[in-house]
Amino acid sequence: MKTYKVYVKRDNTALVNCPHCGTARTINVGKFKGRKYPLKAKCTCRTAFFVFFEFRNVHRKNASLQGYYNRLSGPRGCCAMLVRDVSQAGIRFATLASHNLSEGDEIKVRFTLDDTRRSKIERNVVVRCVADRNVGCEFTEAVPYDKVLGFYLMP
Question: What is the torsional sign of CA 92, 98, 101, 102?
Answer without folding.
Answer: positive
